[in-house]
Amino acid sequence: MPECASQQVCNAVFMRLKFVQPLCRCPNGMKNPCSTRMHPNDGHTVNLLADKDGQKTQTLIKVCEDVSTVKICQEPHDWMLLALQNVRTGKAHYLVVCKCPTHGVMEGPVLHTQPPYARIPGISVYGMLCVQGRKSRLHKESEYP
């Protein structure tokens, strides 16, 4: 398994399925291996999806670092999570860019087409947005710059 980069998602925990998908391993210098706990309060968890009423988390993503070191997303919208996917194999690497505050709404996945690094042959870049203080634009647009 490849070694995780900084703020890379090491495990995805699918609560409904009670399944943990390992994505990379934490570097040897880290105090603990990647968390596999089905609980969001382990200091390494970002809640990714909630049910339609926003009451129950469906997916947790785990990072090697303490999540208190991850910056808070800025208003009015910011890329919270980026996924770099190999179009041939479908495999992806996920990076946590920022944490969405509780008053923010996560939207996506959205195809990321700008800046130029998002246009690498054979790689698709997707993201989850953290939208704060305004209505969603996803019903009008399928892509964000």
pLDDT averaged residue by residue: 83
Radius of gyration: 15 Å
> Strand sequence of the main sheet, in spatial order?
6-5-8-7-9
Helix content percent band: under 10%
What's the total number of strands? 9
**Strand residue content:** 35-45%
Keywords for this structure?
single chain; 145 residues; mainly beta; four-stranded antiparallel beta sheet
Would you give an account of this structure?
With 145 residues, the chain is an all-beta fold. It is 0% helix and 39% strand. The chain has no helices and 9 strands. It has strands at residues 9-14, 19-22, 45-50, 57-63, 77-86, 92-96, 105-112, 123-131, 143-144. A 5-stranded mixed sheet has the order 6-5-8-7-9, with no helix packed on it. A 4-stranded antiparallel sheet has the order 2-1-4-3, with no helix packed on it. It starts with 8 loop residues before the first strand and ends with a strand. Mean pLDDT is 83; it is low at 137-145.
Topology:
Blueprint: E1 9-14, E2 19-22, E3 45-50, E4 57-63, E5 77-86, E6 92-96, E7 105-112, E8 123-131, E9 143-144
Parallel strand pairs: 7-9
Antiparallel strand pairs: 1-2, 1-4, 3-4, 5-6, 5-8, 7-8
